[in-house]
Every structure is written in structure tokens, then in C-alpha cells.
Amino acid sequence: MALTIGDKIPEILGKNQAGQQIKTSDYRGKKLVLYFYPKDNTSGCTAEACSFRDNYSEFRKQGYEVVGASVDDEKSHSKFIEKQQLPFDLIADSDKTLVEMFGVWAEKSMYGKKYMGTLRTTFVVNEEGVIEEIYLPKEIKTASHAEQIKSSF
Question: Does 1 map to a domain?
């Protein structure tokens, strides 16, 4: 069952690019933008990550932290962070625990071929770890996604 608005997110979110455990309590007292994306170093995912990178200081000033998550491994995340100079953590959800819990692991289709993958989805979580807002795949404009969220500050 997917998490939805009003639900509390789990305490253990997973490991970041350096293998460190990321917990919801690490962000207590801050709002959290937790965004799920399909794959490191692809055009749409890079545009989205750079949108957050370029607006990161504004998010921090408003009391938000940004964390990305995909099913790529820690090594892939480290390279992506280094290449794009991302100032925030990326969760390596290689075992798909988080994407399944949040309900963003689903059947997708490309060129008539069906496969399982991550639905680009963003969860805005309040200071108590409760989901306040969800941006669904059809709503997200990758190159300006950070601005979409900032407009609701």
C-alpha cells in the first residue's frame, strides 16, 4: 500500500551515496523534499537534480532539506553527485524497499515494451515526518521542478 498525504514516513529511509544510514529523525524540525527519480545520469533525472541543486540555498533558507532516491547503487550516486555537484544526499534503494513502500515502483511502458521502474514522484514532508504534499509524475516538469515546489512555500 502506497503512502499518501497525512501518512508518517518511515524512520529508516536507507543508505546514502557514502553508505551512511539516512533516517527521518535526521531532519526533525525541518521540512523534507523527498524526490524519487528513475535513473542517475539520464537527461530528465539530471535536469531535475540540477533544478534542486540550483535552488538548494533557497530551500535551506525556508527550512527545507532535499533528498533524492532511486534504485541505483551507492557508487552510481557518488558519480552522479560528483559530476553534477549536487549538495544533497541520494538514497541508494537498490533493494527497492523505499520505492515499494512509497508506491512509486510500478509497471511502465516505453516503445510498447513493459517493464518495472520508478515513477518520478516527489513527497513534501513536514517537520514531524508527515506527508503534506505529493507531486505525481504527470505534474512534474523536470527542469523546473524546484520552482514548482517553491511556489507553494
Answer: no
Q: Which domain holds residue 32?
A: 12-150
Q: Which of 22, 32, 33, 45 is catalytic?
A: 45
Q: How many domains is the chain partitioned into structurally?
A: 1
Q: Is 45 a catalytic residue?
A: yes
The angle formed by the CA atoms of residues 90, 25 and 88, to the nearest 5 degrees, is 25
Q: What is the pLDDT of residue 152?
A: 85
* Confidence at residue 1, expressed as pLDDT on a 0 to 100 scale: 67
- The CATH number of residue 120's host domain is 3.40.30.10
What per-residue confidence (pLDDT) applies to 153? 83
* Helix, strand or coil, per DSSP, at residue 64: strand
Q: Are 88 and 50 in contact (CB under 8 A)?
A: no
Please give the C-alpha separations between residue 21 and each of 7, 15, 41, 74, 90, in angstroms, as whole numbers.
Answer: 22, 4, 23, 12, 11
Residue ranges in the chain modelled with pLDDT below 50: none
